[in-house]
Amino acid sequence: MQGLAIRELSKNFGGLHVARNLNVTLPPGCRTALIGPNGAGKTTFANLLTGVLQPSSGTIHLNGNDIGKLSESARVRAGIAKTFQITNLFRGLTVRENLRLPILEREGGAATIFGRADGYRDIEAEIAKLMDELHLTPLAEKVVRGLAYGQQRLVELALTLALRPKVLILDEPAAGVPTTDSHLIVAAIKRLPADLSVLIIEHDMELVFEVADKIIVLVNGAILMEGTPEEVTRDPRVRELYLGAGHD
């Protein structure tokens, strides 16, 4: 069992320390949440994992391979994928067409985006499987711009899963989703592949406590504590700095 291993990861902008000696392990199958107050460094941490930022020091290994100096696109190919706070979809295309794009790109067939020739039956089967797993099949031929926001977030999640990641970073998956639809996001997270490492960056504590088996609390770029949801809620520092105060 390997997964993602982050050791002594730091990021400085001149004299400003935005990530301080972070040590995090995301084994296969984990469901880990990253929480913290405004300015804690959650976005910086995600950007260091995905290659948007290069660390000042420290290492990032995926299944024993050093990926710390890889570009964003190379990290995606290595198995690091991230959803975003704002949906990034092709709004004029159907759900099925949206899902076809990352699969064709992954397989080197992006030039035939709208083709459904017999030679791509395996791709169509993969699309059908993704839609079934995320309960999107009834929406297959719907244009994305006409979907409810919660449904668009599910499509975005399906697009990310189409990349076949080993580590999935969910950046505020419930952001902008009406409370009445938040159960769709929770259910989708619970249905993710059992061997997939999942890091959830989220301020919706109900969602965090429902899906996470471990929580990391980040404050001022450093890890304050980590533990089970029960351990986190009992910690007086967390109650004072996060759970009882405003958060992003």
Automatic annotation (TrEMBL):
> Transport: present as a keyword of the record?
yes
The chain positions of domain ABC transporter read 4-245
Q: Do you know which SUPFAM superfamilies this protein is assigned to?
A: P-loop containing nucleoside triphosphate hydrolases
Where in this chain does the entry annotate a coiled-coil region? none
Record-linked SMART domains: AAA
Q: Known InterPro entries for this protein?
A: AAA+_ATPase, ABC_AA/LPS_Transport, ABC_transporter-like_ATP-bd, ABC_transporter-like_CS, BCA_ABC_TP_C, P-loop_NTPase
What UniProt keywords are attached to this protein's entry? ATP-binding, Nucleotide-binding, Transport
Transmembrane stretches in the record are none
**A Gene Ontology molecular-function term?**
ATP binding
Give the family, as the similarity comment puts it.
Belongs to the ABC transporter superfamily.
User: Mind telling me what this protein is named?
Assistant: ABC transporter ATP-binding protein
Which organism does this sequence originate in?
Rhizobium puerariae
Lineage, broadest ranks: Bacteria, Pseudomonadati, Pseudomonadota, Alphaproteobacteria, Hyphomicrobiales
